[in-house]
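Researcher: Can you fold this with magnesium ion in place?
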Amino acid sequence: MNENIERCLIAENEIKRRIDVLANEILEEMKEKEFMVIFLLKGALVFAADLCRRLPVALEIESLNVSSYKGGMESSGVIEFLDTRFPDVKGRSVLLIDDILDTGRTLHTVSNKLNEMGVSQLRRCVLLSKDKKRDVDVGVEHVAFTIGDEFVVGYGLDYKGKYRNLPYVGILKKDSI
Ligand code: 5GP
Ligand code: MG
């Protein structure tokens, strides 16, 4: 796996240290002490697992399966909800976690849906935010790292379904694409 990586962008220990700081920020901000975490599958799985274990409150953890990328390198622009049931969020304080903010469409669509369903407080958190112009504006309260506009894998993020288990964030070699 590592032989397909051109370079490491964010090292494992750097992620770990940043998550400790981020967890404290989130704890200070969430009004309800017993909030619900909703993470987006599959990309946010690794980040959410590490972040949630740094939040020493009685969390409820839910996931939503949404698709936008279809496994390649370009977002399809259309966000589909793939679950048949939706978590009961009415009146709840929710922390929405995703892997990366790119065009903004995913977080925008999911945020709208959660607001329609009557969440009482919504905060968003992403591991990575690409420094670029978004297709849609979306406010994200907690960003672990801002990166350039390049395609990354690892720590949950995939290329054609692979590399999610890479413990750091990296850039693929050209000949691995
Ligand atoms: P958005 O809807 O903001 O365009 O994109 C969000 C989704 O696109 C993320 O949840 C992620 O699945 C995918 N994505 C965006 N940029 C990247 C990237 O650089 N690498 C990978 N592996 N996925 C990305
Ligand atoms: Mg994703």
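Model: Folded with magnesium ion in place. Residues 2-176 form a domain with the Rossmann fold fold (CATH 3.40.50.2020).
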